[in-house]
Amino acid sequence: MIICSHQICSKEKSIWFPTKDLYSSVEKHLYCTNCGVIQNITEDRPKAVGYWMNKLGSLSVELGLTQCQKRLIAKDIEMNSYFHDTFSSYGSSQKKMFIHIISSYCDTSRIDFDAVISLKQQSSPS
Fold first, then answer.
1. The pTM of the whole model exceeds 0.85
2. Is 36 helix (H, G, I), strand (E, B) or coil?
3. Which residue, among 63, 61, 72, 74, has the nearest Cα to 107 in the 3D structure?
């Protein structure tokens, strides 16, 4: 798996690009000068691979996963570029891929992934 080391362009070289909101406004976006990919600046932020490994650990008890299943799922997560590129990936894409990977190794019909995997940061109690 080859992952770009993303060299961010200067602010002066940023480009106008549509956003993913309902009103399709445009904003200035930074991009990688090596591969040309545009930086994700939406609220749908990706998580680091460690976040998904922790979620796998907590789900493994609920799903009754064997050590072999956990290792195979972990290996698939490690090899997937969605989980390593926090520059341009989307959290929702990572979540879909995570569910797809787990579903390929076990029955996930009894799990409510939305309740288990919260991509938005929860506010701390005041």
1. no
2. coil
3. 63
